[in-house]
Amino acid sequence: MRPRAWPFLRARQSPKRGNRRKPHKQPELTHFRVALSLHSCHIWLETSARPSPPEQCGRYLERKASHVHRHHYSCSLWIQPIARQTDATDPSTSMLERIWRIAKATTGCSRVVISTEDERIVKHAMSFGAEAFLTPDSCRNGSERCFATLEAANITEDAILNFQGDAVLTPPWVLQAMIDEFALAKDGFDIVTPATILDDTMLRNLVESKKANPASGTTVVFDAKRNALYFSKMILPYMRSTGHTSVYRHIGLYGYRREALERYVKLAPSPLELTEGLEQLRALENGMKVRIVTVDYQGRTHASVDAPDDVKIVEDIINKEGELVS
Length: 326
Hints:
Layout: H1 31-37, E1 41-47, E2 60-65, E3 68-73, H2 75-79, H3 95-104, E4 109-116, H4 119-127, E5 131-134, H5 142-152, E6 159-164, H6 172-184, E7 191-197, H7 200-212, E8 219-222, E9 228-232, E10 248-250, E11 254-257, H8 258-264, H9 271-276, H10 280-285, E12 290-294, H11 310-321
Helix pairs in contact: 1-6
């Protein structure tokens, strides 16, 4: 049964002013935060899978859509079992189902919906009991597909989390921190996204990684209220003097207030976005507040499946560190 929400907290369904009810002694709380605390949050799982001919199954495809580099995978990559070694907890579970289970392990969400452009993904998702919907092939990036999902799945919730289907090693408590920020924050923001602090070893690894691939890893700096000041493929801040702050690595998950997502997808690509290749800079350049939630992976490896060869790497990590959810 879908969790019940307060009628007066529903977005775009407020009663007439004379009959409006107000939270007792908490006028500073907006209806979005309270509504989310009453289980009216939605998590969306993006599966960027395109129909492909049999001879292309298993291949890694890339398509350029305007300035955005968007990765696509054949259906076989998403549906094939992952963690197939004999000591895996559940060797028959596909990557998509693992992602879905991670999302379902959170609290405070009314729905978990999978959206895709491939009917085979929909069929597979429904086989393990998930809600799944088709969205247009014309979506150029995750934000546009997330917006398209509002209509395709008839989503009425006040906030939407965009959780991509390749992030199979994302701990559920990272998603939970994003949900809790909507419920507990005492000031307004438009978008929420996580970041994790880098210790000395992690920072050295990032520096070495950028020598081989300068575009690897994104860092973020934020103000005292945890609102983002800037995201960059450069390592920020520049440490002229140490001991004052730390480097935070951005994790590419986003939660949107409904009206913020509607506004964002209507904005044109911005100069800094085009320069760095980072979509979130479009929000900053247009005055939107992007709230950073700091998270701890608690010893778990931060990685995703960005190409078919990564599947074996992820399988090894799962067998070494164990399942994130049972």
